[in-house]
Specification:
Layout lengths: L11 H6 L4 E5 L26 H14 L5 E5 L9 H11 L4 E6 L11 H9 L2 E6 L4 H11 L6 E5 L3 E3 L12 H6 L6 E5 L2 E3 L2 H4 L1 H8 L11 E2 L6 H7 L18 E3 L21
Parallel strand pairs: 1-2, 1-7, 2-3, 3-4, 4-5
Antiparallel strand pairs: 6-10, 7-8, 8-9
């Protein structure tokens, strides 16, 4: 039993500087929302990109050996509850990372369908699954009530209402690559972002292929921008990787957080993710 004795609390300064690694494993690119300036670029995804169970088990097995002390291991997307086997994948994580928190980031839109599903809530309680929920249109009270009625109050980690979005990516060219820029960058330094069998330092590089495919703008993601999750991965290599990479030259962090978008559907405009490119002129 991994039942949570107290509620999981988010402390962004702690995550930024103090925790052991937080692993975020993207199991699908698609989402049931269409949020403006999504930091994972889900509105630009044209295919589900569901991770297969065998591939998931392979990657998780390697990560368990390399990062056995992970603070929290998360499923992300897109919207991870759209993956047809997401509960199975959560079970695999729990079995692998017995000393870590195991959680899932979600917009909460699919949770209502489980209201009368006792097995779902028993699984959540018994495995100590943390549900990191952004409320959007339903708000905190709805989720507090839903989790509370099923004895899972400690399993809810409510993030925020999602009323505003910042441009956290700004795809560009010819920008600085330096330790100083990396230190200034706003992505949490403790995070290990996993997608398609690769580890990235930030979602900007992780999801750059979605930007490139949607707008026909070439983004260069080379071998120096990720670590393959294979037999060559070691803790030493992972620790050394936490720094500036060549892809940093394609990201302008000076405008990060400066433009605020109200919660609304994405128009799929290039300007939601970059102030540098003009899609009408071919990039």
């Amino acid at each position: 039993m991994f039942e949570l004795k107290e509620r999981y609390e988010f402390d962004w300064r702690r995550i930024q500087f103090d925790d052991a690694y937080h692993i975020e494993y993207c199991i699908t690119d698609i989402c049931n929302r269409n949020c403006v300036s999504c930091s994972h670029l889900a509105p630009l995804a044209v295919r589900p990109n569901f991770v297969g169970r065998a591939e998931f088990e392979r990657v998780v097995g390697i990560l368990r050996e390399v990062v056995p002390d992970a603070h929290t291991v998360w499923l992300t997307g897109g919207e991870p509850t759209l993956h047809p086997e997401y509960l199975t994948l959560l079970g695999i994580l729990r079995a692998a990372f017995v000393g870590s928190y195991v959680g899932i980031y979600t917009n909460g839109a699919t949770l209502g369908r489980h209201d009368g599903d006792g097995e779902f809530w028993a699984f959540t309680r018994a495995n100590g699954i943390v549900w990191a929920v952004t409320g959007y249109d339903r708000g905190r009270r709805y989720f507090e009530d839903l989790f509370g009625r099923h004895g899972c109050a400690n399993n809810l980690a409510y993030l925020h209402d999602g009323r505003t979005f910042f441009r956290l990516t700004d795809y560009s060219r010819g920008r600085e690559v330096s330790d100083a820029k990396y230190a200034e960058c706003g992505w949490e330094r403790c995070k290990v972002n996993v997608r398609n069998g690769r580890i990235f330092n930030c979602p900007s590089a992780e999801f750059a292929d979605l930007f490139a495919e949607r707008f026909g703008i070439k983004t260069e993601v080379g071998e120096g921008d990720f670590l393959p999750v294979d037999g060559s991965l070691t803790r030493e290599r992972l620790d050394r990787f936490r720094g500036p990479v060549p892809f940093c030259a394609q990201c302008d962090i000076r405008s990060r957080h400066k433009e605020i978008f109200a919660n609304r559907p994405s128009n799929g405009d290039v300007g939601e993710w970059s102030t540098f490119y003009d899609a009408s002129k071919g990039g």
